[in-house]
Amino acid sequence: MKDKSQAEKTAAERQVELLSTALGSAPSAKGYWLNASGKTYPSFYPKGLTVSPFNALIMSLHSDKSGSKTNLFMPFSEAKRQGVAVREHERGVPFLFYNWNQYVNRNNPKDIISRNDYQALDVEQQKQYKGVHNREIRTLFCIDQTTMPFANLKIWLGSDFGNWDNAYGTANDGDNSANGKLAGSGAIVCPEPGALYTFKVDFSTMTYSWIKLAKQNPTKFEKVGLIGVGGDWDNDVDMTEVTPHNWFVETTLPAGSFKIRANHKWNGGGNWGFVENQEYKSTGKLTNDGNSKDINVAAGKYRIFFNDITCEYAFIAE
Questions:
Q1: CB of 86 within 8 A of CB of 146?
Q2: What is the separation, in whole angstroms, between the first and last Cα of the chain?
Q3: Long-range contacts made by residues 122-130, C-beta under 8 angstroms, separation at least 24?
Q4: Average pLDDT per block of 10 residues along the chain, 318 residues long
Q5: What is the arrangement of strands in the sheet containing 179-181, beginning at the earlier edge strand?
Q6: How many CA atoms lie within 13 A of 215 on its CB side?
Q7: Beta-carbon neighbour count of residue 22 at 10 Å?
Q8: DSSP 77
Q9: Which listed site, 126, 163, 202, 226, has its alpha carbon 20 to 30 Å from 296?
Q10: Burial per residue of 278-307, b for 16 or more beta-carbon CB atoms within 10 angstroms, e otherwise
């Protein structure tokens, strides 16, 4: 059996530490030892490898221990590429995967080709080769452990999501003006880091603006979710808080109605829906009121975005 590398030994120690800490703290947490707040299944931000059940367990344990509000992760290399820093004194979590980057000829062990070359072969030729996997370990951080919620930003459109080469920015990198033009690849910066703003873009004029919100100390909700999906008014479909007060979920909805509420309860502090006679549009604004009306949608798969301060939403059908 092949001996473990030092990196693999360090990763194993970290995994044992996370699991032991979670189980040890369960008695004081009413028996909960994992994901008591109901965060979504761990995933990469903005996109990346599929997360295996074992990696998901370790990532969730890490998210809980670090006090993160989400289960969204990024490797250190991706954070660096985006110009995002890992916050001081933060520890990462090991992510284990197999990299199938080489293929060897079944009849000639000296005949080794790359993954790209293998994919270029026809089906019959591919049968002559078998994959050679290399176990690799990467260090991940929850996005809450980085400066991403306070960092510079750029804009993606549609299928360009995740492609930094096609991101919209400014002519002057680091521009923190209240108003500007999308005229380059420089980073757009909030005029007052730490304050709450609405960021609006007009692609017809290729301009953007920052509008400071009147509410700088809004209510903070532990959970926000959909209620009433498929006629179920007892169980919420939880959303993920991707940045403070901005919630997201990707889900399939049957034809019908639902509302959005906070903390799995009906209360005046977080009960969002349509106003009387409001017509459905894919983007718009909800009202936060005990008398708000149901939101009616057609059946389909949706990416739902919601801000609990401005009450603005986007329901993007796929």
A1: yes
A2: 47
A3: 129/103, 129/104, 129/105, 130/103, 130/104, 130/106
A4: 80 94 91 85 78 94 89 85 79 89 93 92 94 88 79 78 81 87 86 82 94 89 94 95 90 96 86 94 92 94 96 94
A5: 179-181, 207-212, 197-202
A6: 11
A7: 20
A8: H
A9: 202
A10: beeeeeeebebeeebbebebeeeebebbbb
Q: Tell me the three state secondary structure of residue 302.
A: strand
> 0.70 exceeded by the pTM?
no
189 neighbors 174 (Cβ within 8 angstroms): yes
Among 197, 220, 219, residue whose Cα is nearest residue 209: 197
Amino acid identity, position 27: P
| Per-position b or e across 98-118, b if 16+ CB within 10 A of its CB | eeeebbbeeeeeeeeeeeeeb
Rounded Cα gap, residues 95 and 132, in angstroms: 19
- Helical H segments across the chain, by residue range: 6-25, 53-65, 76-81, 115-119, 123-126
Identify which of 35, 33, 17, 13 has the alpha carbon closest to the alpha carbon of residue 25.
33
Using an 8 Å Cβ cutoff, are 43 and 71 in contact? yes
Supply angle C-alpha 167, 195, 199, rounded to 5: 35
Q: Which amino acid is at 214?
A: A
Nearest to 184 by CA among 172, 192, 194, 202: 172
